[in-house]
Design brief:
Layout: H1 6-39, H2 43-46, H3 49-62, H4 80-92, H5 96-122, H6 125-136, H7 139-145, H8 152-172, H9 175-191, H10 195-216, H11 222-227, H12 237-257, H13 265-277, H14 297-310, H15 312-322, H16 340-344, H17 352-356, H18 361-384, H19 388-402, H20 406-425, H21 433-437, H22 440-457, E1 464-467, E2 470-473
Antiparallel strand pairs: 1-2
Helix pairs in contact: 1-5, 1-6, 3-4, 5-6, 5-7, 5-8, 6-22, 8-9, 8-20, 8-22, 9-10, 9-14, 10-20, 12-13, 18-20, 19-22
Length: 474
């Protein structure tokens, strides 16, 4: 029997494939950017629409003009991505190739960050590498990072960080992750105005989470634990799985007495540690720390302050120019308009009264359901072309429910809430890249649940435990 760990070896192979995928993405991106620049190197004709806006704003920043006067004409543009472009302009003397490579570098950074995050969550390099490969080779990622100068790549990177902080917080319940979560949301809002949906959704979901912990999670509240000390309780899912882990460790200890001479004690020790670490639920960091942390209302007050302070460059200038810190111009009319052009060309801001003056509640319900059908089903499948990630995420949702992976169920609620405004506006603002950019990072984390299960099932050294009909392959 060889002392080599086949799962570790397979993980290294998957990491090498990820490195190759990133190299392939870089090669294709650099080749296309170089070819485009040889055909046209004048930014005035090279950039169009959103890219042109970002470039013009970046030029103002690079020249030292931070008055945010661009908001008078484009109040729906945010400053973070142009500020990044301006930094590259100053460093490279406005080299177009370097500017075009900003989004490419952001995607590579996002892929590497995703790999490190998932490996930390799942203790599995193979799962992390497979999900990162599905990300970096996604057609949507290439379309948004290479041909133009869009803000989607920065949004994808920030949303990956937001989801990681969210999952860490609902598993560790540590205030540091709460503050990091709202700092990242603030940065995302500085990149895209629909970051406001993320902020509202995060506060709503975490409020529900805190109430659920207060009323149903006495193990996380010392005061409640004291109150319920004499109350008989059912064995928790976690304690049942810990018992399972202990039995596996004892079984490994029995086998070690009869192990052949080529199995070292170090390998057995690693196997025992693995049996402890891979209890169901450890994958999402639910039992990584026994430290009890207390989060109170003032932590949320500090988080709100961090969010407000981080977004000052956006809301303060709008307050100065328009008297409204949340004025975004014509795109606000997508909420209550009927058509894209009608909303953009309206001489005044539309309100709910304008919409319901000519529509019934049944019309509103039909519009909302149509939008949900598009943003949750049609658009993800269409953007991915070969929707492996989408269906893996659906399978991950099923496993999260079956295995009671509570942090991922909270994540699913977070995803659903922040998508509702996009579902409502989708029949009017039919651009598919906006809702899918808000969807893909959630798909990555949910798909990891299924990929981890599927990968473990293929390993030759798997051990099978069964609970409630769910096979837990370790």
């Amino acid at each position: 029997m060889s002392s080599a760990n086949p799962r570790s070896l397979a993980g290294r192979v998957c990491f090498c494939v990820l490195a190759f995928a990133i190299g392939l993405y870089l090669f294709a991106s650099i080749r296309e950017i170089d070819r485009d620049l040889k055909q046209d190197s004048d930014w005035r004709t090279y950039f169009t629409k959103d890219a042109m806006h970002h470039y013009v704003i970046a030029e103002a920043f690079a020249s030292g003009d931070f008055s945010m006067s661009y908001e008078k004409g484009w109040p729906y543009r945010q400053p973070l991505f142009p500020l990044l472009i301006a930094a590259v302009m100053k460093a490279t003397n406005s080299n177009l190739f370097a500017i075009r490579m900003i989004n490419v570098c952001l995607i590579v950074l996002a892929a590497i960050s995703l790999f490190l995050i998932l490996r930390a969550f799942w203790r599995d390099s193979a799962t992390a590498a497979i999900i990162s490969i599905l990300f970096v080779l996604n057609p949507f990622v290439y379309d948004q990072s290479v041909p133009g100068l869009n803000s989607e790549p920065l949004h994808l990177f920030l949303l990956i960080c937001i989801i990681a902080c969210f999952l860490r917080y609902v598993t560790r319940w540590h205030w540091v992750y709460l503050l990091l979560l709202f700092f990242a949301i603030g940065l995302d809002y500085l990149d895209r105005v629909n970051g406001s949906f993320l902020a509202v959704s995060a506060f709503a979901v975490l409020l529900c989470f805190e109430f659920s912990q207060y009323f149903f999670g006495s193990e996380r509240h010392p005061c409640l634990a004291a109150r319920d000390a004499n109350t008989p309780t059912r064995p928790t899912k976690l304690s049942e799985f810990e018992t399972t882990a202990q039995s596996r460790i004892r079984r490994h200890a029995d086998l070690s007495d009869n192990a052949s001479s080529d199995v070292s004690s170090e390998a057995l020790t690693k196997e025992e540690a693995s049996a402890k670490d891979e209890v169901a639920g450890v994958s999402d960091d639910e039992t990584k720390s026994n430290t009890r942390h207390v989060v109170s209302w003032w932590h949320y007050a500090v988080a709100a302050f961090i969010l407000i302070a981080t977004t000052v460059p956006s809301w303060l200038s709008r307050l100065h120019y328009f008297g409204n810190p949340f004025y975004y111009g014509a795109i606000q009319n997508f909420l209550w308009g009927d058509t894209y052009l009608g909303s953009m060309d309206s001489p005044r801001m539309l309100t709910a009264g304008d919409y319901f003056a000519s529509h019934s509640l049944l019309d509103a319900a039909g519009r909302f359901l149509l939008g949900c059908w598009k943003v949750f089903f049609i658009i993800p499948i269409d953007r991915e072309r070969l929707p492996l990630l989408y269906f893996a995420a659906l399978a991950g949702i099923w496993f999260a429910w079956q295995q009671r992976r509570t942090p991922y169920l909270w994540l699913l609620l977070f995803y659903g809430l922040q998508m509702l405004p996009l579902a409502w506006t989708q029949p009017v603002n039919t651009t598919p890249r906006i809702p899918y950019a808000a969807t893909q990072p959630f798909e990555l984390f949910l798909a990891a649940i299924f990929v981890h299960w599927l990968w473990a099932k293929t390993q030759p050294d798997k051990l099978t435990e069964s609970r409630n009909g769910v096979s837990l392959i370790r």
